[in-house]
Write a structure and sequence with these properties.
Blueprint (H helix, E strand, L loop, with lengths): L1 H16 L32 E7 L8 E8 L8 E11 L1 H7 L4 H8 L13 E2 L3 E9 L11 E5 L11 E5 L3 E3 L6 H4 L3 H14 L11 E5 L4 H12 L3 E6 L4 H6 L4 E4 L5 H6 L6 E4 L5 H5 L10 E4 L4 H8 L1 H23 L2 E4 L6 H12 L7 E6 L3 H9 L6 E5 L5 H11 L15
Parallel strand pairs: 9-10, 9-12, 10-11, 12-13, 13-14, 15-16
Antiparallel strand pairs: 1-2, 1-4, 3-5, 3-7, 3-16, 5-6, 6-8
C-alpha cells in the first residue's frame, strides 16, 4: 500500500503543479473533468477511454482491493442515463460484505439475466454505493438533469460502484444534491436514505402524513441507517426509541431520539419492556434481536417488525439461486404466518431500493435543516483500504466518506499530504445546520 500512496502522491503533485485549469467554483453551471486525473475542465470525457478506480479481481479480505488507472470509462448506453463525475463516495457495511463475495450470485443475475447461462466473470468489480458529484453528460431522453448539475445518488449493488472517477446511472436513480451540503457531506446520505425509506414506507407502511405519534423502536441506532432513520421519523412526527451503546447516547439524542436504551447498561429487553409497546420495530442488528423485539410490538393493532438483516443473499450464495431463493421465501412466509396468527404482528424484510424521486424529498428535508449529515471519518482516494479497515471495526457513529475528487487547489494539497500518512484521523461526528 505504501507504493500505491507514493504513486498517487507523485501523480497528484505533477497534476497540480501543472498549469491550473479553471476552478469548478468559478462557473455559473460548472462542467466536469475531461481528463481522468484530478484536473477540471468544462467538457465530458469523450476523448479518454480509461479512468482511475479501486477494484477487486477476486473476493477476499482487504488485501484484494487494488488501485488502477486502467478501468474503462462507463458510457451512456441508453437515452435515460447520465454520466457523473464522482466528487465523494461513502462506504456502507454492504461494501465490506460484497468484497468478501456476499450476494455475488444474485447480484450478478440482477446485473445480467443472461449470466445464468454462462460463466463470465463479474470482475473487475468496483465497490462503493454512495456518491455525490457533477453531471458531465446525458442521454437523449434525460429531462431532469443537464451537464453541470450537482447530484447525489445511491448506486445499486448490481452496478459498478462509486469508488471511481465516473459512474453512469439512470436519471431515475439520481437526484439533485441538497444546496446546503458539500459533496463530502452529501455522499454520506443516499444509500442509507433509500434503505430507510424502503424499509419504513414499503415494509413499515409509514409516510409523512400518517407517522405522527407512531411509536418506533430502532435497534442499532448509531450507524448510518439508524442516524438517518431517527431524523426522518422525527421530521414525520413519530416518537423514536433507540438502542445503542453508552458512547453513542449523546449522538442519537442530539439527532432527536426521544428515548435511548444503552444496551451495555443492563438487560436491554427488561428496559424496553418497561416502556409502552411500539407500532414499528426497525431492526438493524439481527441475530437474536428478532426473538425479543417482536414481543415489544402492540398486538392486534397492525404493528410491524421490519428487519434489514435477511438471509436471502446468504442463502443464494450457499445454496444456489433457485434453492436459496426458495429457502428464503419459505422462511419469510412461515415467520409472517406465525407472527400474524400469534399476535397480529406483520413480519417484513426491508431492502435497499434505488429511488431518485425519494431522494428529491430527502433533499428538501436537508435544505430545511430537518436532516443533517453524520460523517464520522474522512479518507482520501488513496486511502480506500484504510477506510474499509475503519468500517470493519464496527460500532459506527455515522458514515465513513472517501474524497474521490478534490473541489479546489487547497483540498488537492490536503489530499497529497494525507496520502503520505499511514492512516487517516477520524473526524468528530459532524452535523451541518443550514
Amino acid at each position: 500500500m505504501a507504493s500505491v500512496r507514493a504513486m498517487a502522491s507523485a501523480k497528484l503533485l505533477r497534476l497540480f503543479n501543472a498549469a491550473a485549469p479553471r476552478s469548478i467554483k468559478t462557473l455559473a453551471r460548472p462542467g466536469c473533468s475531461v481528463c481522468l486525473t484530478r484536473t477540471i475542465s468544462t467538457s465530458p470525457p469523450r476523448l479518454h477511454s480509461c479512468m482511475s478506480a479501486w477494484v477487486i479481481d477476486q473476493y477476499g479480505s482487504n488485501g484484494v482491493l487494488k488501485y488502477t488507472e486502467e478501468i474503462t470509462v462507463p458510457t451512456i448506453n441508453s437515452a435515460s442515463e447520465v454520466m457523473i463525475k464522482v466528487h465523494a463516495a461513502s462506504l456502507n457495511p454492504i461494501d465490506v460484505a460484497m468484497r468478501g463475495g456476499y450476494g455475488a450470485k444474485l447480484l450478478k443475475l440482477r446485473k445480467d439475466p443472461l449470466s445464468v447461462m454462462d460463466d463470465d466473470s463479474e470482475f473487475p468489480l468496483i465497490l462503493g454505493r454512495d456518491m455525490s458529484g457533477v453531471v458531465v453528460d446525458c442521454g437523449s431522453g434525460v429531462t431532469h438533469f443537464a451537464p453541470g448539475d450537482e447530484v447525489w445518488a445511491a448506486v445499486p449493488p448490481w452496478k459498478q460502484g462509486s469508488l471511481a472517477e465516473y459512474v453512469t446511472l439512470t436519471e431515475y436513480e439520481v437526484s439533485h444534491k441538497p444546496k446546503v451540503l458539500s459533496h463530502i457531506e452529501a455522499a454520506s446520505i443516499p444509500y442509507v436514505a433509500n434503505t430507510s425509506l424502503s424499509a419504513l414506507v414499503n415494509g413499515g407502511g409509514l409516510c409523512r402524513d400518517i407517522s405522527s405519534n407512531k411509536r418506533v423502536l430502532i435497534t442499532g441506532g448509531s450507524g448510518g441507517v439508524g442516524t438517518f432513520a431517527i431524523q426522518l421519523l422525527k421530521a414525520w412526527g413519530a416518537h423514536v426509541t433507540v438502542t445503542c451503546s453508552q458512547n453513542a447516547v449523546g449522538l442519537v439524542r442530539g439527532l432527536g431520539a426521544d428515548e435511548v436504551v444503552d444496551y451495555t447498561a443492563g438487560d436491554v429487553v427488561e428496559q424496553l419492556e418497561m416502556m409502552e409497546k411500539f407500532d414499528i420495530v426497525l431492526d438493524g442488528v439481527g441475530g437474536d434481536t428478532e426473538e425479543w423485539a417482536i414481543s415489544l410490538l402492540k398486538p392486534w393493532s397492525g404493528a410491524k417488525y421490519v428487519t434489514l438483516v435477511t438471509p436471502l443473499l446468504l442463502n443464494t450464495d450457499s445454496m444456489g439461486l433457485l434453492d436459496g431463493t426458495l429457502n428464503a421465501g419459505f422462511a419469510l412466509h412461515n415467520k409472517a404466518i406465525q407472527n400474524f396468527l400469534s399476535s397480529g404482528v406483520f413480519y417484513r424484510w426491508g431492502f435497499y431500493a434505488p429511488d431518485g424521486p425519494a431522494l428529491d424529498e430527502v433533499s428538501k428535508l436537508v435544505d430545511a435543516g430537518k436532516i443533517l449529515p453524520v460523517v464520522e471519518a474522512q479518507f482520501s482516494f488513496t486511502q480506500v483500504p484504510q477506510a474499509f479497515q475503519k468500517l470493519e471495526k464496527g460500532h459506527a457513529r455515522g458514515k465513513t466518506v472517501v474524497r474521490v475528487a478534490e473541489e479546489d487547489d487547497r483540498q488537492a494539497e490536503e489530499l497529497v499530504q494525507d496520502s503520505s500518512t499511514e492512516t487517516a484521523e477520524p473526524v468528530q461526528e459532524t452535523a451541518k445546520q443550514s
